[in-house]
Design brief:
elongated; 205 residues; four-stranded antiparallel beta sheet; 26% helix; 9 strands; alpha+beta
């Protein structure tokens, strides 16, 4: 029996030369593959960063909105501002409620820059954290009447001498900024929130 050895012979191209990868061809293929993998990796990392950034923003925005709703509900019930500090590393505002039957007679919001926390203290209750990851918190006291020709801008609660007067403070204007770092500290997501709350239980001025 005669066994054919053709299957074991080296394959040749149409010119009769052996088929295979030459060194330049291999280097080109490796280079192209590396470029493709680098592009895929770049888009993957970008997609992950975008997803994490959006998730952080949605979470912080939801917490800020919840805080804004709670502060609006509480401050609207108050009758007057009795304490206020809007400078330095620790800022606060204290309001009172002298309405008959009120369960909360005073409420105080305090922002601490060292802990990046906005806390709330109510009558007979311990201080609780209202908002975390808060980098800055600004609060202004204003009159109820807006500045003519403007949108959402109100006259400051100052008397004829230019001094702050709690008796004419009818609106609390607040603004805060929260941020959250991810992938170390290389990237941050920021959320800015503003709210304007009218003290409904005071006389109109």
């Amino acid at each position: 029996m005669k066994i054919s050895l053709s299957k074991f012979r080296t394959r040749h191209n149409w010119r009769g030369t052996p088929c295979g990868w030459t060194l330049p061809e291999l280097m080109v293929a490796v280079a192209i593959g590396g470029i493709v993998l680098a592009a895929v990796g770049t888009f993957t990392v970008y997609g992950i960063r975008s997803f994490v950034a959006m998730s952080n923003y949605v979470d912080m925005d939801e917490k800020s909105r919840r805080t804004s709703d709670e502060m609006t509900r509480q401050i609207r019930q108050c009758t007057a501002v009795v304490g206020f500090k809007n400078t330095g590393q620790t800022r606060w505002i204290t309001l009172s409620n002298t309405m008959a039957g009120a369960t909360v007679n005073y409420i105080k919001y305090t922002w601490d820059s060292s802990t990046r926390t906005l806390s709330c203290e109510k009558t007979g209750q311990p201080s609780t954290s209202t908002l975390t990851e808060c980098d800055d918190w600004e609060v202004r006291l204003c009159k109820r009447n807006p500045i003519p020709g403007t949108t959402n801008l109100f006259h400051p609660a100052t008397n004829i001498f230019g001094n702050l007067d709690f008796n004419i403070a009818k609106l609390v204007d607040m603004k805060w900024k929260c941020s959250r770092a991810f992938i170390g500290t290389a990237l941050q997501t920021e959320s800015v929130q503003t709210t304007q709350i009218v003290l409904r239980n005071t006389d109109s001025q």
